[in-house]
Design a protein that fits this description.
Largest sheet: 8 strands, mixed
Number of strands: 8
Structural class: alpha/beta
Bound molecules: D-malate
Strand content: 15-25%
């Protein structure tokens, strides 16, 4: 059984809950999606620990991390992650692996902390900003959870996160993900939605991304489609594209063995 260590790391006055595993190899920073926590990466913390040092934090306000003193944003999260690496005395470049909102934060990490990056793994995410009606929907959800609580959020979100067969073929992952969403604080959901609604469009940055990049998407991703991600991948020099069959938006969780194998292959070519 692989040892996953859990600890609290203080980053500029904010406490971050962090899970780690592995002792040697490249450092992978695993950044969860919305409104989730580090447990979505349990299969990577377990399955890749012989090949990498894995760091999976709960972003401020999510999982076991309290909210930061400053308002949540993609920029703040990227800066916090850079501070976390410093606080953990990680002095080598890392591979930033983010899913969906974690990927939005990844663009900011690349722009603001390029010197810390060896490579990127972009899972089920997009570079574009929200269309106006999507941003409006987020503002409405923020208002709703503040007034009515979070009871309806998991039921509304979970069917969009997983492949169509998952309710039967992957029922444990579906149930556990619903439990994580239900346990997420209303204010974290509201501020997360508001932060994503105003995030910048990173599409113009893609041709300048100069580190090795792996783009992964579930073939049944209903939120960030394979077609959109393939096009995005084509704009990043040196990007490799991987579509995982039998997975939706949660590809590392839905097809962990295939995902981990693809990551091992990505690592085997080394980083400059
Ligand atoms: C996520 O999985 O992080 C969300 O789907 C991101 C979003 O709402 O755009």
């Amino acid at each position: 059984m692989v040892g996953i260590e859990r600890k609290t790391v203080s980053v500029n006055g904010n406490d971050w809950h962090v899970a780690t595993s592995g002792e040697s190899g490249p450092v992978i920073l695993l950044v969860h999606g919305f409104p989730l926590d580090h447990t979505m990466w349990n299969h990577q913390l377990e399955g890749l620990s012989d090949a990498a040092r894995l760091i999976a934090p709960d972003l401020p306000g999510f999982g076991n991390s309290p909210p930061a003193a400053e308002p949540f944003s993609m920029e703040l999260a990227a800066d916090g992650l850079a501070g976390l690496l410093d606080a953990m005395q990680i002095d080598t470049q890392v591979v930033f692996c983010g899913l969906s909102m974690g990927g939005y934060i990844g663009w900011q990490f690349w722009r603001r902390h390029r010197a810390k990056l060896a490579g990127m793994i972009c899972c089920d995410t997009r570079s574009a900003a929200d269309e106006p009606e999507v941003a409006r929907g987020r503002e409405m959800m923020a208002a709703r959870v503040r007034s009515e609580g979070t009871s309806s959020v998991a039921a509304a979100m979970v069917p969009k996160l997983f492949a169509s067969e998952a309710a039967t073929s992957n029922s444990v992952a579906v149930r556990e993900t619903a439990a994580v969403i239900s346990a997420t604080d209303a204010e974290a959901i509201a501020t997360g939605q508001e932060a994503m609604a105003v995030r910048v469009d990173a599409t113009a940055w893609l041709p300048a991304i100069d580190c090795r990049t792996l783009v992964v998407v579930g073939a049944e991703d209903a939120i960030t489609s394979p077609a959109e991600m393939r096009e995005m991948s084509g704009r990043i020099p040196n990007a490799e594209f991987c579509e995982l069959h039998g997975a939706g938006h949660m590809s590392p969780l839905e097809r962990p063995d295939a995902f981990n194998e693809r990551v091992r292959e990505f690592f085997s070519q080394g980083f400059e």
